[in-house]
Amino acid sequence: RRSIYENQEGEDALEVAFDAIATCHPRRVLEVGSGPGELSARIAAEFGAEVVALDISERMVELARQCGVDARLGVVRSLPFADASFDTVVAAWMLYHVPDLDGGLAEIARVLTPGGRLVATTNSEQHLEEARAHAGVSMVGRVPFNRDNGREILERHFATVEQIDVDGWVTFPDAEAIRRYVRSMIMIAVASSADRVPDDVGPVRAGTRVTVFVATTPAL
Which of 13, 49, 150, 209 has CA 20 to 30 A from 141's CA? Predict the structure, then answer.
């Protein structure tokens, strides 16, 4: 999936998210759904912050530890931390995987200090739709936390929510590139549609539509 963005035109959403984290002046950070830990390691290295990474996968925790990160096994809906433990929480492209989203956000708000911030990234339901259309796949109604509903959901748990939309373009050179992208999608019903892509498709220019949300807890 990462290879899709090698020819991206426009701003890098991850860099926009990193800049948003920088504005938080983080000192103690929790990254939920941290994966192999590259972002957590970068936050620790560039900001000198104390960072804890949490992931549901034992393998991801193992990889994050190899990056020198304090990585722990756990789930966002039951965070093993005391109230007000972190000034910043990072959730990069993971909240749409949380089964009990409101429960998870309540936990994130609980472990944040007063005035603490959540930096969360997600995609629009129309992200890369020009490519998926060739497989007959629509993500409308399939992404529980997305650009269009994210602010409303976050406002149930946070005092203020800032929305930063980051749009650009990538080019899929041929049909097989689109098939690989569709097969990489987590939803089995979507991934199984890859073979619908006709052989004569390509190149296809598709829009990247990503949003960075910065949500702040009430100050004392």
Answer: 13
